[in-house]
Specification:
Distance between the termini: 43 Å
Shape: globular
Structural class: alpha/beta
Number of strands: 9
Length: 339
């Protein structure tokens, strides 16, 4: 699916679901890419107000290490109608306190309605969460955390503990971008905003590699869709095989999202359908978890959803003989709740 088509689909779904959006620009895109993305989005959505635009200078083998931020990038986003602008931050490596201070101190002078992008090595949460909290509090501006990992940063229990510590300890708003379903868990634990990547390459930052390649698609992948009962993304082929082997439990393969209306997800047979279903279904998950009057209930609901999904993953694997390993983030969030 082309980037332009992805933006069109995201704009339409965001309008239907009433949710915000993050547009991540591709390699080599700058101000012209920003304007083009905004025009495409506005062709299918009435406003750019709830859109963040990510310059994505931090990913791939050509990730930027220069900590100089461009104030004009902030102005350009506001000019396109975005209520909040995201800094064009570089990747901040483990223990690079100078880079962290530089990015945060520059952003302090960019005015109101600015969110500081913090693309971070995992150690900032697993070992240096207290240092990160102190730096964020000194800056006093909203921040968006994005983490580097080869698979899923939130499958690491200490990373989830660190994230919760940062959310609890930081005075300014803290959000998580370039994330998977853990964005919902972060919101349940008090994050101010979160974004689930539309594709696997946008659900965390992949480590730079020695060999030259297109790091935005680090390995060939089949079209995948979100399976609500197990809270996982699986290839359409694997979903069809598992559902056929699990014919006695039809409800496991049905979805109540606005796009599916109770139909089985096995009917999805292309990327566009998988894309629309996954957006609508994860939006429904977020609403089910977060639409509670108090934070404690939201957290308990999220924990119960994770526990149930762990069980479903094990049942599918045991009953079908098809590999269906539970994603690691489920156990991480259950472990945090048990402390």
């Amino acid at each position: 699916m082309s980037r332009s088509k992805q933006i069109v689909d995201v704009a339409a779904i965001a309008a239907n679901e009433g949710m915000g959006t993050v547009l991540t620009l591709g390699a080599g895109k700058d101000f012209a890419g920003l304007e083009q993305a905004a025009r495409t989005f506005l062709g299918h959505h009435p406003s750019m107000a709830d859109v963040l635009i990510d310059a994505d200078r931090y990913s791939g083998n050509d990730r930027v290490t220069d900590t100089a931020l461009n104030r004009a990038w902030i102005t350009a986003q506001h000019d396109q109608g975005s209520r909040h602008a995201l800094t064009d931050s570089p990747f901040i490596d483990a223990g690079d306190h100078r880079a962290l201070r530089s990015v945060l101190s520059q952003a302090e002078h960019f005015g109101d309605h600015v969110v500081v992008a913090l693309p971070l090595a995992l150690r900032w949460l697993t070992q240096d969460a207290n240092v990160l909290v102190e730096a964020i509090n000194r800056c006093g501006m909203p921040v968006a955390l994005m983490l580097e990992h080869r698979d899923d940063p939130y499958a690491v229990k200490s990373a989830v503990r660190g994230l919760v510590a940062v959310i609890d300890g930081a005075s300014p708003p803290v959000g998580v971008l370039r994330c998977d379903l853990s964005a919902v868990g972060a919101l349940a634990y008090g994050a101010s905003f979160g974004a689930i990547g539309a594709t696997i390459s946008l659900r965390h930052i992949y480590p730079a590699t020695a060999a030259k390649q297109d790091d935005r698609r680090p390995f060939p992948s089949q079209t995948a869709a979100y399976h609500p009962a197990s809270m996982t993304y699986r290839s359409l082929q694997k979903i069809s095989l598992a559902a056929a082997a699990d014919a006695d439990d039809i409800q496991r393969w049905e979805c109540r999202c606005r796009w599916c209306h109770g139909q089985p997800i096995t009917r999805i047979d292309d990327e566009a359908g998988a894309y629309q279903h996954s957006f609508a279904a994860t939006s429904m998950l977020a609403a089910d978890v977060l639409n509670h009057p108090d934070p404690q209930t939201a957290r308990a609901t999220w924990t119960q959803r994770c526990l149930h999904a762990q069980t479903v993953n094990m049942q599918i694997e045991d009953e079908t003989g098809i590999a269906w390993k539970a994603p690691g983030f489920l156990g991480s969030w259950v472990a945090v709740a048990a402390r």
